[in-house]
Amino acid sequence: MRIAEALRVSGIAAVDARVLLRFVLGWGDAHLAARPEQFLTEDQQDRYFSLLERRRAGEPVAYLTGEREFFSLGFRVTPAVLIPRPETELLVELALERIGPEARAQVLDLATGSGCVALAIARHRPRTRVTATDCSREALDVAIENARRLDVANVTFKLSDWFSALEGRKFDLIVSNPPYVADGDPHLDQGDVRFEPKRALIGGADGLDCIRHIVVHARRHFPGGGWLFFEHGYDQGARCRRLLARAGFAGILSRADLAGTERVSGGYAVRA
Description:
By secondary structure, the protein is α/β, with parallel strands linked by helices. It contains 10 helices and 9 strands. The model has no long low-confidence stretch (mean pLDDT 96).
């Protein structure tokens, strides 16, 4: 079977079919486009059609290939971690805005998952020390492998249920992409989310349990002041700002993603 025919009969979205075929062949997009008449070997064809079958069953492309790009960096992903998404890059952008290029800041990334947020910050701020935590050993293993693959050395990974293993630690900035989907939300039964770890998605009855915990406990980990930023759901911005205000944060803000949806909120923890 030729490449052009393999793409034509895939039965899935064209962009996904191209990603899977590039993965099987080990080619870039330009290479694939330049050789539509090349034949697949029997092994390549078998591997490709096996992946197509799994994709048609709904399995995310990122889990099929084990890869996803985030902040122009390539990350390994497995079903132990959430798939990095473009809207989460806003969390990195807000952090970098508040850390100078030469700053020797201390940054904490809670619920690091694949490590994408922590490693993107660390790569762009090499003098900063980043601590990345997760309550899942399997997730931390993926994040540690990503640090090795990306050759990022200024990140320390720690097994911790939120702040539980960080007693006495102080930071200049704290970021998190915590679970924030409400239990029972119909989106949990749709698309790629069906295959992602539920513990990394569900944040209690209203989706805000983890965010409440972070907001309440973060202030004692700032030495004399510092920024807290976290991702949240499309309809949670106003409630998150109220939580931050009640906890005594100043400079409270929400920032919209490229789709115009409030996606990240945060505030400054002033000295008590």
